[in-house]
Amino acid sequence: MLLVRFLLLLCLQQTGHALQLTAPSSHRAKMGEDVNISCSFIISKPIFNQSFPAITWYFQGKEILSVQNTKVIARDPRVSYTGRAEDGIADLSISNITIMDRGIYKCSILYTPKREEKEIILDIQAPPQISITEKLVVKNRENVLRSVISGFYPVDIDIKWLRDGKILDKVIMEKPLRDPDGTYSVRSSVTITPTKEDRERIFSCRVQHKYLTTPLQEDFQLVYGAIPSIHITSQAFILNVEQMLVCSVSGFYPESIVVNWFLNDTLVKNTKTRRISSSAVESDYHFIPTQQNRDMELRCVVEHATLTIPHVERLRVQVTDLTAKYKTFVPIVAAVLISVLGTVTFYVLCMKKKKKSFPKVRDITRSPGGIFSLDVHHFYPEAITISWEVIQPPSSTEPRPIASTILMHRNQDGTFNATSTCESLRGEIREDEPYIVRASVIHKKLKYPSHREWKSDDKDNRGNNIH
Fold first, then answer.
1. 79, 81, 123, 209: least CB-packed within 10 angstroms?
2. Residue-range domains of the chain with CATH
3. Confidence of residue 114 (pLDDT cuts 50, 70, 90)
4. pTM for the model
């Protein structure tokens, strides 16, 4: 630096000029950094009062900083003077550089009557970042993978999607949007129909941009989801008689799910949703049919990540008015009931209690996510045992027990329901060989244990009854 200034001074003395200014023609910085733009000067013939020169910096033609007799005035809090006029240094510093700071800067030195100016072009580097926003898919169904590429400048960018390194087609890139900080962001998506084999494959979103020395790539694996099934349980509607409607939702993955009831287009607020297992919930609605809601539509609406639109189960409110229907028959019915009330009441209560006592064991079901469930309905007393085991190969005589969970629910008639769930067979079986999953139910009212089986090679996924 001393040698350069000596040469400049020598040149000035030979030419007779009093002031010479040196600055780079361009400067490059990364977004978010603190930047120092250099500018230096040499005065060959100082005047007798040894006064400092006036230093002024401009950005896009507007003054942003001035230095006069050691007094510094900055028009922007991020702009500062880092030079030393007595040493011929007039450097400008800008903190936390943004895209809006790119452009033409001018360093101006006034040493009366001489003025020298130099323009410096500041270029800002803003490389992109990738965020995968959607990788949940359903097997054998058309799905869309999505990503957001943000924080880049300039706007030109190239986006590709890959599966195990092979470029995919059906790629969509939306129109880039300008963000408040001056950079750009853009959404990109690709449509695929995932298969079983895609579970182990690596998917990638790859981006090429001016300020990337090598392509930027985000790798990920697909997350396989299961679509929920819906069923509404109800009885015949009777005018002004309350009943509990149950919307059962099962077989879904991931666990997060929203269930709402609507009466026509009005959201019902007095409902309660309870979780039965990781892949099953029930939503209860205590409903009283009135004349005003006759022929209205009840809807159970389910929102889940695997659904592009909410899944809806509908139920029409068809009300029976027992009072009006049987008004003319009340005296006759009353007389008949009085005569046989004792016998009929005793008989009905005995049969009802006996009917309640025996468990109704359903077939084993398997959700798309590989979760096995067994439902046992309307049994009494509450004590019950449900155990699970796996048999592989099917001819084996040594079944292996597997872990399970059980959830109990008390019905309005005093009986109980139970749902036993076997969450996963990972590590328990060899997936390339047939196997049998067996559930056994033991209850006081069953003379022998009741068994249900699910065979891996059964196409309809139905269990076989074994007693």
1. 123
2. 2-125 (2.60.40.10), 129-224 (2.60.40.10), 229-323 (2.60.40.10), 326-357 (no CATH), 360-466 (2.60.40.10)
3. confident
4. 0.58
